[in-house]
Amino acid sequence: MPLIRDHAALCLGLRKKDKMLIDRGNKQGPIKTKAMDKKPSLAKEIFADLLLTHWFLSSLVVFFIASAMLQARTSHETRRAVVKWQSLREESQQQQIIWQALRLEMSSLTEADRISRLAKKQLNMIEVTSEREKIISL
What is this structure's pTM? Predict the structure, then answer.
């Protein structure tokens, strides 16, 4: 029982002198002080017990909760990064398709120009103008 009295005295904020008076008592019963007339709150009792008696367990719980919160935040940031990476990858693929279309168009344009130059040079062909044009009807 002395441990319970010590703990109760600690929670009530009693001094050693008051605690000794309570333990000794007198013929009429234990001596009551003003601090004993106050009823401690249950939350205060639990909090004091957790911090004083089970401080290691309390700190582990706090670290566990903090770790869980950091893990949730990291998972969220990772998901956002993956979504952004996928959208950038799709955009890159679209740009690659556009680039290939432009290269194909460029090569076809340069191909026609090359054929036209060769025809003018090797076959002595000329471009038709409206003055040199003749329409033949059938």
Answer: 0.44
